[in-house]
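Suppose a colleague, Dr. K., hands you the sequence of a protein chain of 184 amino acids and asks what its three-dimensional shape might be. Before reaching for any lab equipment, you can write down a predicted structure in token form. Begin with the sequence itself:
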Amino acid sequence: MKNYFFGKNCFTQAVAFAALLLSMSASLTAEEVAASKIAVVDVRIAVLQTELAQSQFADLKKQDDFKSNMASIESLEAELKAMVETYQKDRAVMSAQKREDEEKRIVEKQKDRNYIASKLQQAQKEWAERSMEDQAQNLTRVLQNLVEEQGIGMLIRADTGVVLHADSSYDISAQVTERLNQIK
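The predicted structure, expressed as tokens, is then:
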């Protein structure tokens, strides 16, 4: 599989790039253009929606640390909401010192919540990376088979904008060289 990087993480740019290649390629006949297939795949979504990945995620959610962190987040969010509501309601009658103290307590509670949330995000990130690694070989094989079976001329990774496969009919390098040489 050929990998070419052409730009930012943008599905729209990937499709626009493929359309540009098709429109610029004078070497393709009308029949070849009509027969060329451009496909887009979001590899991350495809892998993370597999039964294997979902099973691994279910296992993650059953782990004591994960469950404990989820419960902590819910508790902290409820406490934070109550603190903010009380502060907003009583703020007008509070002394400056009391307002400052309450604001500090709210900020500290937010920091606690953010710390636990980052631990949960890290666990989910590790799950996603593990799932991607577990499926890497199968993914490559599946993508290669789909390219062959469906006659896909260009396969673009939607989440990164990377061209995963492009047959030689999309290569306009010689035409670009020729036109650059014509510029005086």
